[in-house]
Structures are given as structure tokens and as C-alpha cells.
């Protein structure tokens, strides 16, 4: 019989593995011990770490806004490896009410902002930049930056080249001393 007519046989659940010819079963004493059937946890670990997925910002909870040390900004995390089957990329939506703020801070990964609605000023290393719908800003790694929303509030997309949002360590600058 030609090689094209041979098949590999695998019987899921019994662990029986072998080769035979089409229409024949492997010998009963093939000498192969049954393989254990993996449990659900083992199967989940075998899945790829990152998979195609979607996130709907309207269905995700708002976080933040409670600590005056970093400002009034709130955010929705769209992609983060501790919440979604993603890797190498964090994506979220920042939301500010009128005159809302994100205090001056730094972090090691570079970041981008892409304006969705409203208006505001993002100050990067002392230089103010307008942000609004359709405007993209690049914040270099380690650059000090802060945001002040306009009177109509502000929403922008932000992203980091990290697996998880928790991998981004924010270092807030000391507030200016009253003089």
C-alpha cells in the first residue's frame, strides 16, 4: 500500500495512538500506553497568549477619578493582558469633564494620545499641545506630561507598548509650592 493510503489514528479520550492502513485498526497490543486526557486548565494554558478580540468602550467600567493627587481623569481599559487575551499592547480611553485634569507625571514607556471628542491642552516637557478630534500626540518615554481639558471636556484614546496597564508605573511630579 502506498504512503498516501496510510493514516495516523488518534482516538481522543482513550489515548490510543498509532498508524495503520485505511480500513484497519491498529493492533490490539500496539504497546502504547493510554495518554491522560487533559483537564480544562491545561487546555487553557495551551491556548495562545494573544488572540483576536474586540472591546466596546461603552460596556466597560470607568475607573479612576477618586485621587486628587493625579487629577480628575477617568479611563476605560480596552486591551490589557490581565483582562483581555492580548499581549504587547495596552489601549484605553481617557475621559475628562469640563476643565478636568491629569497631573504632571512620567512613565518609562512611550505613549500616544488620539483625540476623540472635546478639546484640551497636553503639556509635554513644558510645551503645550492642543488636542481634539483627529489629533494624535506622541509622548516620548520619560517625558513629563499633563492634561487640562477644555470647557467641553475631552476624550482621547491612549496606548502603550506593554502587556498590561499595571506594567506602566506612573511617577507624578511634585506639585508646585505655593509662594
UniProtKB/TrEMBL annotation:
Pfam families: Cupin_2. Residues 93-152 form the Cupin type-2 domain. SUPFAM superfamilies: RmlC-like cupins (SSF51182). It comes from the Bacteria. Gene3D superfamilies: Jelly Rolls. Transmembrane segments: none annotated. This is Cupin domain protein.
Amino acid at each position: 500500500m502506498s504512503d498516501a493510503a496510510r493514516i495516523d489514528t488518534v482516538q481522543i479520550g482513550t489515548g490510543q495512538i498509532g498508524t495503520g492502513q485505511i480500513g484497519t485498526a491498529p493492533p490490539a497490543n500496539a504497546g502504547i500506553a493510554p495518554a491522560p486526557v487533559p483537564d480544562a486548565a491545561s487546555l487553557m494554558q495551551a491556548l495562545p497568549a494573544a488572540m483576536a478580540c474586540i472591546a466596546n468602550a461603552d460596556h466597560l467600567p470607568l475607573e479612576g477619578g477618586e485621587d486628587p493627587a493625579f487629577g480628575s481623569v477617568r479611563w476605560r481599559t480596552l486591551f490589557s493582558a490581565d483582562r483581555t487575551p492580548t499581549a504587547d499592547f495596552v489601549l484605553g480611553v481617557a475621559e475628562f469633564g469640563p476643565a478636568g485634569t491629569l497631573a504632571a507625571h512620567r512613565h518609562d514607556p512611550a505613549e500616544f494620545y488620539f483625540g476623540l471628542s472635546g478639546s484640551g491642552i497636553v503639556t509635554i516637557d513644558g510645551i503645550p499641545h492642543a488636542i481634539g478630534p483627529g489629533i494624535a500626540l506622541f509622548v516620548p518615554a520619560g517625558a513629563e506630561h499633563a492634561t487640562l481639558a477644555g470647557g467641553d471636556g475631552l476624550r482621547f484614546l491612549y496606548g502603550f507598548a506593554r502587556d498590561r496597564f499595571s506594567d506602566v508605573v506612573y511617577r507624578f511630579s511634585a506639585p508646585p509650592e505655593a509662594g
